[in-house]
Amino acid sequence: MKIKFTFWSLCLLVVALQSCTNNALTDVFTSIPNQHWTYAQPCKSNLEIIDIHKKYNILINLRHTDDYRYSNIWFKISIIQPNKHKKTERIAFSIASPDGTWLGNTSGSLFTYQLPYKLNYNFAAKGKYTIVVEQNMRDNPLNGINDVGIRVEEVEEK
What we know:
- The protein has 158 residues and is mainly beta.
- It has a single domain (24-154), classed as Hypothetical Protein Tm1070, Chain: A.
- Helices cover 12% and strands 51% of the residues.
- It contains 1 helix and 11 strands; from the N terminus they run αβββββββββββ.
- It has one helix at 2-20; strands at 24-31, 36-37, 43-49, 56-65, 72-80, 86-94, 105-107, 110-121, 127-135, 142-143, 145-154.
- The strands form 3 sheets. The protein has a 5-stranded antiparallel sheet with strand order 1-11-4-8-7, with no helix packed on it.
- The chain starts with a helix and ends with a strand.
């Protein structure tokens, strides 16, 4: 009982601290059923850009288990602009060191990452954007993926 209370107290503290400095326009996670991420399960997030003079960080949220077999992960990431023009690119992220140690934050057998996709990024126009993240590995389904998400945050000016 004491462990549950401590765990939930810690969770509440983390949420409270994040809410004080949360500059995210979107921060979503999509849960992957049975930890088998297929090509047909993209993660999407919609956001509206009001100020094109501000810079933004676009991060890919990822959670996986020890069942994930690779030291990297390939994504196909698309940004759909307000005029419906779609820019897509394929990009890889290393998520383990050469010795096989996972690089993410760990909680038991779950590893969490915020992978930097675009840093100090300027959106081209005001309006509604959609960001889509798809798995782009050879395995379909890709095993061991628990959640995938997208975070877009304003870069704080100093």
